[in-house]
Amino acid sequence: MKHSFYLLIFIFIAYTSVSQSLTKDDYARAVSFLSQNLNGKKVFNANVAPFWAGDSSSVAFIIQDKDGRNFNKIDLKKMQIDSWLDKDRLAKLLTDSLKRPVSANELPFANVRYINKNKVSFTAAGKNFTLDLTTYQLTRNSAEQQDEMETRSPDGKWIAYTKDHNLFIRSTETGTIKQMSTSGFKNYEYASYYVWGEIIEGESAERPKHFAVNWSPDSKWIQTFICDLRKGQKMYLLDWSVDTLYRARLLSYYRGSPGDTDMVYMLPVIFNIETGEETLLKEFNNVNEASFDWSKEPGIIYCENHVRGYQQVDVYRLDLNKKAGELLYRETSTTNIDNFRKWIHEESGFMGIASERNGWRQLYKLDLKAKSLNPITNGSYYVNDAPYFDKKSKTVFFIAQGKEPGRNPYYQHLYKIGLDGKGLTLLTPENANHDISISPDGKYFVDNISTFESPTTTVLRDASTGKIIRELSKANIDGLQAMGYKFPEAFTATARDGITTIYGVMWKPSNFDPSKKYPVIDQSYTGPHTNMFPRSFGAAIGRNNQPLAELGFIVVTIDGMGTAGRSKAFHNVSYKNMGKNLTDHVLAIKELAKRYSWIDADRVGIFGHSAGGFDAGHAVLEFPEFYKVAVASSADHDFRMEKDWWPEMYMGWPVDSTYHLVSNITMAGNLKGKLLITHGGIDENVNPSATFKLAEALIKADKEFDMLIFPSQRHGYTGRYNDYFTKKRWNYFVEHLANVKPIWDFPLR
Length: 749
Hints:
CATH superfamily of the domain at 479-736: Alpha/Beta hydrolase fold, catalytic domain
Shape: globular
Number of strands: 44
Radius of gyration: 28 Å
CATH architecture of the domain at 479-736: 3-Layer(aba) Sandwich
CATH class of the domain at 479-736: Alpha Beta
């Protein structure tokens, strides 16, 4: 009798802990929640983008329903909503111009610029058009016909171009040619630039031609760069994807790795048009390209220079007439300087700076004459942007998160404040996230208000008070709710320091049963430059975690210490220590398991892409007793094999032993669970070499693992390849984490 009792207990535990077998209906339900099957089909207007008329006379916006898109505008004087574009007429015009049928409900309408109340420019099928809204005359933009290897001066008198790797200018009035440089040659190229991901076929083939110059407003100076490729190191790829080729194509591209000194350098140079004098700015000769902004004052230019290692930023004012320069601002850090930004307001006599110099990302005013620095904002919150400055009232409009007590620290709000730091005003009081777009004249703004659990309402507001003037759109999710959709749930946990509150979100199956125990899957991206909390409704859907939850999982995303968007101290936790970024994830999931009986902390999986792929691989190697299954896609498994700037920002420069200590490759022998590593064969962002090197290390350690290479794919997987990978990732967790037989034969669209 006693044995029968224990048998019943065992059967009960097995029944409540293990998912039932999955059917095609279960997969169909999961597929139905993919964002590609929701947006524009079951969910409408999750984010409405405004198009401000250049003269601020009106704002246009596109809303959608099941019958198609509607192009509306609101006149900012009359405050009434009218039709903006006649989509039927435009479809006919595009059909004639593109020589192929164009549907009014599927206009190929992109890169929209609302020039003024009578004109709009846009891109359709890769071609640039301008539409006259009064006559409905459609014209191809003449700019499309311009030579990309030439640039006209602001006064129209000169055309700059290159020949034999040197810079020339040609008079538009007389045709007279001036040769500005004489030192250029192949691999030491004037007015050229280095494209981070440009692919060269073969070892010694020509790279694509590039041209760029920065004319001064008075047309008397040219600032440009010399692209110095002489010591540039390359990375390589083998492209097996061409059906008609039976030998792989060798692809190469210039890319420095952390610690390299033999790499591509961009050398800033300035030319005096009248005298032909060339000034090479040797002090800015480093791997991190300096940036330049011309003053309206003749012969004055500003330079922002990031010293290699990202622990020093300098801002200079260069007087080319006097051949003198002065240091306006210098910032240093013992860790790194991330997200530094400046805004030059010369007419108002100051430069705005966004900096974490005092522990939180705040705004500062740098007096351009006195060179004194004073805070504009001050507090324990994070300033994201300062999109508008009102010169007349000397008011700064800024977007920040974490300022409002008792609210989620990732929700952003719009504020205004005087340049003197007085008169701080909250313009978006609702306890939600606010995605903001301000009119060119600063009098109005469009606000997309939402959270992960509340659909978007889009409104027009008065910028002086924040008062809502008119509702423009409200998201329609009737189709989504009819599917039984359950909003994700936010949660908090305590970080590794035992004090700090961290935030996360969880997705449950729509048929959630609290009497069962569910495996947990962690969607991770702890890359320190960003955070994962889906603060808007559109972001929550776009995560595509609900589909995975439908297969019998609790899916979570967590922002532990070391990620961005909070204090500098919070961010610094990951500096030179990115391998420990998952520590708070482990603690949070364990805390959730204590809180909720339906979470099974003995069955935890993880997936991520790119830096998130590093996380996924690292999880089963650094925390093998906790994470049991991982899918790591397109991962930078060893930062020493990555692009130079990203690891040097977060792991430091020069390269030291910390790179070795956090490497997934050096930890390969720790693997106990199931690991799937995938990569695009021609990924020029994160070279697949680290994935191959990890595979080699796992083999040497006699560890069983799975590997999938997409020969024709780059860093992101597209079309059928993305579908294939989605199915592969889902089923990897179904089989190895839920211990259920997966189904492969089901459509994703």
